[in-house]
Structures are given as C-alpha cells and as structure tokens.
Amino acid sequence: MDHEGRLGRLPQVMAQSKLDALLITHLPNIQYLCGFTGSSAALFVADGALTFFTDGRYAEQAHAQVQGCKVRISRKPSLVAAAEWLGAKARLRRIGIEAAHLTVAERAVVAAALGHGSRLVDAPPLVERLRQIKDADEIARIRAACQLGSGLFDRVKTVLRPGVSEAEVAGELEFTARKRGAEQMAFPTIIAGGKRSALPHGRASTAAIPPRGFVVCDFGVILSGYCSDMTRTVHVGPPSLKARRVYNAVREAQQAALEAVRLGATAGEVDGAARNVLKKKNLGQYFTHSTGHGVGLEIHEAPRIAGGQKEPLQAGMVITIEPGAYLPGEWGVRIEDTVVVTETGCEILTACSKDLVTI
C-alpha cells in the first residue's frame, strides 16, 4: 500500500481548508494513511510531520504496522495522550478535527488541552475524499473480496429451503466465508424471506423461510481489510406473473444504472437512471432508498449514489448499484453489484448471474 503517497497528499488538502494541523481519530482513516489496524489510535498532522498515538496494548503492533509516522506509546488512552501532546503546540491556531467521529465528551477533552490562541475547527472530510479514489492495490483487494463473496451465493442456494430459519442460512454462509479466508463479514448478513423481504434491511432472524415467496440475500465479506457487497433475490416455489414482473423491473433498473456509470456522470444521474425505470413500471414509490454507496475499508463510504448528489464519478471509485422494490405486506426484491468506475464505464466485481433463481 502506498501509505507514503497518501500521507504526502495530506498537507495540500489541509492547506486548502486553511488548517495548521489535523487530528485524525476515525480508525479507518488512520488505517488508510499509515496502515494501523488496532482499535485505539490517534494521528496528528502538522508542519508536514505525522505523530501516531496508541496505548501499550498495541506497542508491538504499532511498530510493525505504522508507516511514515513517529510512534508514541502512552499509558493513557490514545486521545488523551494526543490531546496533552497537542496542548504543548501553542503556535498552532486552527486545528482541524473529525467532528463526525468525535463524541461531545471527546471533543471536550481535546479542547481542554489546547493552549491559548489555539482553537478547534470542524474539518471537512479530507481523508474520506482521498479514500474515494482507490489505487491499484486497493482495487485488487476489493476484487478479491468480491470474488470470495460472490462464490458464497452457491452455498446460499444449497442451504436455503422452506422451513429452514433465516439465521441458519446466514450462519452457513458466514461459516463458509470464514473457511474460505474471510476475516469477517462486512455487515450483518441479510436473509429476509416472504413478507420480511419487504424490509430493505431485514437482518437474518429466527423466522422460517416460507413455502413460497421472495428471499432477499444481501451479504459481504472483509478480505485483506477491504469489503465486498452483493445482493441477490431468489424465489421459493413457482413465482407469480406479478413477482416476475417486479423482479424483471428491478433488474432492468439495475442495468440502466450500470449503463449510466461513466466518467463525469454525477452520482445523482446514476440514481435517476434506476429510479426512472421503476417509475415507468409504476414501482417508483416502492424504491425507498438510494441506488448505492462507495465501498472500501468501510462498507459505506463516499460517494453516495442518490438523488441530488452532484459528485462526478471518477476512475477508481468503487460503488454499489442496488435498486429495489419493496411492497409492504407482500415481498421485496433487490439486486446489487459492486463495480469500479473505469475510463470506459465500469467493471462489475461481483460477477454472479442475475437470472431469477427458484428454489
């Protein structure tokens, strides 16, 4: 991973926000910048120098993983150690913080340590903006995660049967993922059958798979630190004409959004491509969430693929395309792929058939 290059880009984006220093506390941002994967850390950037803080539990790990930073090991919590050290830097006036990732109490700790003339400034998501564009190493890791994740669908189709609980299907999927090398699941697995498939985030429950109806299967893994994300919807028993019509409409909407992914297109335009198809099919009111999101070290990253979003797509962005239609009291359908934006459109990383599977 090019941690040196990432760290080298920070001073420029800080200068654009007129920051004298930046305190980074969001762990995925810290991992992105210097490679640390522990659960307690802070990273301070000022005058082109970077100082990394963690506690004694991670002394050996920090010295092995952290790149491009001076490592400080403290007996105190990482944020407290960083705040106290920051308090000695009186000449720094505008100190940026990741306000979205600090509690009120944590902000108070940092503010109390500041010297006279220094003040905290809510920084824009500077590191998150850098993270939007994945480099070749990151794309390779996401591609590998997606390949592992896509392969789990065959196991789902083997286990999923009427009367089996959603939790059992999810458990078999997750056990297989671990056996095949996944570090962990990227998010709580969604297996939602029958009426529960109309819940966009219907996590696997003790409910039994019904004798007939749709089952939404949404899952992802983490491999080498990076996430995958995929959804396929299967049908138990013979699908009705209405069920086939809704499934085909969602598939058509997803294909329209995939075709809209190109350099310079805005996130809102991609969302609109999917939404317009479903509106024409009189299903617009049943598409109740955004069309997608960025994927990387976190399962939900920028950019957000939603209406009104003006962010232009750039080569190297990795996003999901996942329209759906959810009919309350009946069932729901979602089809999702993870794709990487390329110079000529996009590459689908979750290469798995989208034909309607019947169980």
Could you walk me through the main structural features you see in this protein, from its secondary elements to its overall organization?
With 359 residues, the chain is an alpha+beta fold. The protein has helices at 3-16, 27-34, 59-65, 78-87, 104-113, 126-132, 136-159, 166-179, 241-260, 267-280, and strands spanning 21-24, 42-46, 49-55, 70-74, 94-97, 119-122, 184-185, 190-193, 213-219, 221-223, 226-227, 230-236, 292-294, 301-305, 318-321, 324-327, 331-334, 337-342, 345-348. The strands form six sheets. It has a six-stranded mixed beta sheet with strand order 4-3-2-1-5-6, with helices on both faces. Strands 7-10-11 form a three-stranded antiparallel beta sheet. A three-stranded antiparallel beta sheet has the order 8-9-12, covered by helices on one side. Strand 3 (49-55), helix 3 (59-65) and strand 4 (70-74) form a beta-alpha-beta unit. Helix 4 (78-87) packs parallel to helix 5, helix 7 crosses helix 8 (166-179) and helix 9 (241-260) runs antiparallel to helix 10 (267-280). It is elongated, with a radius of gyration of 23 Å.
Q: Which sequence of strands runs across the widest sheet? A: 4-3-2-1-5-6
Percent helix, as a range, is 25-40%
Average pLDDT: 95
SSE string, helices as H and strands as E = HEHEEHEHEHEHHHEEEEEEHHEEEEEEE
N- to C-terminal distance: 43 Å
Number of strands: 19
User: What portion of the residues fall into strands of 2 or more residues?
Assistant: 15-25%
What's the number of helices?
A: 10
Sheet/helix structural class:
alpha+beta
Assign an overall shape: elongated
Largest sheet: 6 strands, mixed
Which regions have little confidence, pLDDT < 50, spanning 5+ residues?
A: none
Over all CA atoms, what is the radius of gyration? Answer: 23 Å
